[in-house]
């Protein structure tokens, strides 16, 4: 995976997009999703039944997480790219494969959330208790595994080998991202490229695969399919960098978790990586894994004073600009406008 664009030397969770401090922003998620509102309504009706009812616990778990709300941003991206590229291909409407793809993507994302909550021992997800809090860790892990397996079965039934390979790689990438993160905790020598690769695995892989797969099902050229992949990749990376900035700049109440929680756990993100280039004292603090009283607060101060936040903001904007540049192959219509708006809205969260 090439991350050499620009800077070279993780979430797009729907809930995180609602930055309460940006209520005056001219771009709203609801307006961006209006172009595919009917498609999302159909998807919402199907999600709770697609898991099946053969196991009451799994059915209850699906109801718990699918009923917790969220903006369904990943399937929305599938629908937006599907409709934009369908127009290029001269299709009158979306194919059943487009719609099934959107459902599969949301199932994979949901499975990853269940596993993430177990790994992070999170008690709440979108205002509701997490699956492992209700049913226990063992059932939560199995529920996530079942959703991955179920999504793979539906994926195989699409009978498109290129898409099967593309989406199957995402599940592998999720695991690779978690392993990379776990093996690099408190590593002050973590290169920016490694951070971006981990962010790709954890966040951007699913988005880029889904946007490319949507274009494949429209039957457009390989060039357009690759540009849709690059759009998703850079959008995903920009989202992750923005989330990592917000981990420092938002209050614990806004985040729904303690501020700078990634840093406290030793997960060094873009603001910290940039700050380490200018603040030797920060390395000393991190090497001691915040063992001294007040050392985490000192580290946070150094990240701000060093300009780490500003440089991370520049990185997020650079990836955002790359994402928008990949949309030039699409017709100028409401679907392309919403795809561009997704990128701009993300940056609005840190303006």
From TrEMBL:
Position of the signal peptide: none
An annotated GO cellular component: chloroplast
UniProt-listed InterPro entries: Isoprenoid_synthase_dom_sf, Polyprenyl_synt, Polyprenyl_synt_CS
Cofactor: Mg(2+)
Gene Ontology terms: biological process: isoprenoid biosynthetic process; plastoquinone biosynthetic process
Any single Pfam family the record assigns to this protein: polyprenyl_synt
An annotated Gene Ontology molecular function: metal ion binding
Keywords, ordered alphabetically: Isoprene biosynthesis, Magnesium, Metal-binding, Transferase
Domain of life according to the entry: Eukaryota
Alphabetized NCBIfam families for the sequence: prenyl_cyano (TIGR02749)
Family of this protein: Belongs to the FPP/GGPP synthase family.
PANTHER family, alphabetized: ALL TRANS-POLYPRENYL-DIPHOSPHATE SYNTHASE PDSS1, GERANYLGERANYL PYROPHOSPHATE SYNTHASE
Name of the protein in its database record: Polyprenyl synthetase
Protein species of origin: Cinnamomum micranthum f. kanehirae
Organism ancestry: Eukaryota, Viridiplantae, Streptophyta, Embryophyta, Tracheophyta
């Amino acid at each position: 995976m090439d991350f050499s664009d620009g800077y070279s030397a993780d979430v797009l969770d729907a809930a995180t997009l609602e930055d309460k401090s940006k209520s005056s922003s001219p771009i709203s998620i609801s307006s961006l999703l209006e172009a595919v509102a009917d498609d999302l309504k159909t998807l919402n009706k199907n999600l709770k039944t697609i898991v099946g009812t053969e196991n009451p616990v799994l059915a209850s778990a699906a109801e718990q997480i699918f009923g917790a709300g969220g903006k369904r941003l990943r399937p929305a991206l599938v629908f937006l790219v599907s409709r934009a590229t369908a127009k290029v291909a001269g299709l009158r409407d979306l194919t059943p494969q487009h719609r099934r793809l959107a459902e599969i993507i949301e199932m994979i994302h949901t499975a990853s959330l269940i596993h993430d909550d177990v790994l992070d021992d999170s008690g709440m997800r979108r205002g509701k208790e997490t699956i492992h809090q209700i049913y226990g860790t063992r059932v939560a892990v199995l529920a996530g595994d079942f959703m991955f397996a179920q999504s793979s079965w539906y994926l195989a039934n699409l009978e498109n080998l290129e898409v099967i390979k593309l989406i199957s790689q995402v599940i592998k990438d999720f695991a690779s991202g978690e392993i990379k993160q776990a093996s690099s905790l408190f590593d002050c020598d973590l290169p920016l490229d490694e951070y971006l690769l981990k962010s790709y695995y954890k966040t951007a892989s699913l988005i880029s695969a889904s946007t490319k797969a949507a274009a494949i099902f429209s039957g457009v050229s390989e060039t357009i399919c690759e540009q849709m992949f690059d759009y998703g990749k850079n959008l995903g990376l920009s989202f992750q960098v923005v989330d990592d900035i917000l981990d420092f700049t938002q209050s614990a109440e806004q985040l729904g978790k303690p501020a700078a929680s990634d840093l406290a756990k030793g997960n060094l993100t873009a603001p910290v990586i940039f700050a380490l280039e200018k603040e030797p004292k920060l390395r000393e603090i991190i090497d001691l894994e915040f063992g001294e009283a007040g050392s985490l607060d000192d580290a946070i101060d150094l990240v701000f004073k060093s300009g780490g936040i500003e440089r991370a903001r520049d990185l997020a904007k650079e990836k955002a600009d790359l994402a928008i540049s990949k949309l030039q192959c699409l017709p100028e219509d409401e679907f392309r406008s919403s795809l561009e708006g997704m990128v701009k809205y993300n940056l609005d969260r840190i303006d």
